[in-house]
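Sequence, please.
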């Protein structure tokens, strides 16, 4: 009598793949649940004495804004890759609540004028201020001089606030660089030159080999703490008005709309930007009113003043 066949040795080795989702501030695919924590938006110094900054190369989104004296500072946002430390952290400015609020999460800074502190304290973020710190997560480092030496233990700050939700997605994302709006409808642009003031003129150049934009400031490569040039997948330039209500401290007008350009993959698309309220994200649309989709990856947003600033796009 023939033996009865069995399934031994024929068991399936198939394993259900882990579910995936999109990183809210990058549009990249990640394992579902791995980014269930808040974002950290911090005011980061861009004075020459503050460079190279700490952790700037690991940001999801960076906003560059004009401040007093014609120099610029950053509002840098981390969520998908939070470093152990970030800095140098500087003081809040009047446009920062409008920039930070759509992300929710944590807003970090090192004090500020009373009027500006009142603005950020009523914004929908957890306020983490060096001047009022009781956590011990802020400190001054000895390798830079004050006031350009305040650092924050970023990953620990985020881990202590797991009760805060992850940020909402801010922008539309295509599934690939090739499918992004700039690649589909834009024109080839190799360099983006900007001028915020007579003393600050950053630029981005397309690096085809590295498939990213490389950043320079005042004609010199802008380097991170590891000596590598800062880079970005997407570069967005917004033409913005400056509100001089606060005298020598300029306020970038974030509530409103204006001209913009969106650069991805070595191509640039003209756009319109719009932001309806403090808590709303910035929207980008093409000439037909269609939402622009970025490539998956990090993004730098340049808030270039209309009156004293300029943007030059070179083929």
């Amino acid at each position: 009598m023939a033996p009865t066949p069995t399934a031994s040795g024929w068991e399936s080795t198939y394993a259900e793949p882990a579910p995936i989702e999109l990183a809210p501030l990058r549009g990249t695919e990640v394992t579902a649940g791995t980014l269930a924590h808040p974002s950290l938006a911090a005011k980061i110094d861009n004075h020459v004495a503050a460079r190279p900054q700490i952790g700037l190369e690991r940001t999801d989104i960076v906003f560059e804004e004009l401040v007093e004296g014609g120099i610029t500072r950053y509002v840098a946002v981390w969520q998908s890759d939070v470093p152990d430390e970030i800095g140098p952290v500087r003081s809040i400015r009047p446009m920062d609540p409008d920039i930070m609020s759509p992300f929710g999460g944590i807003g970090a800074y090192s004090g500020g004028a009373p009027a500006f502190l009142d603005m950020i304290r009523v914004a929908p973020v957890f306020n983490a201020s060096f001047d009022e710190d009781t956590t011990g997560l802020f400190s001054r480092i000895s390798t830079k001089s004050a006031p350009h030496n305040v650092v924050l233990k970023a990953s620990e700050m985020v881990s202590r606030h797991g009760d805060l939700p992850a940020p909402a997605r801010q922008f539309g994302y295509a599934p690939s660089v090739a499918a992004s709006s700039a690649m589909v409808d834009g024109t080839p642009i190799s360099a983006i030159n900007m001028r915020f003031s007579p003393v600050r003129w950053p630029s981005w150049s397309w690096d085809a080999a590295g498939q990213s934009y490389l950043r320079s400031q005042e004609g010199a490569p802008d380097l991170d703490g590891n000596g590598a040039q800062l880079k970005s997948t997407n570069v967005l330039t917004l033409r913005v008005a400056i509100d001089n209500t606060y005298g020598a401290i300029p306020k970038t007008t974030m509530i409103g709309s204006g001209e913009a350009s969106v650069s991805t993959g070595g191509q640039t698309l003209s756009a319109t930007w719009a932001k309806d309220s403090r808590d709303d994200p910035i929207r980008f649309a093409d000439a037909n009113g269609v939402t622009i989709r970025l490539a998956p990856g990090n993004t730098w947003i340049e808030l270039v003043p209309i009156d004293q600033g300029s943007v030059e796009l070179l083929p």
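The longest strand covers residues 256-264.
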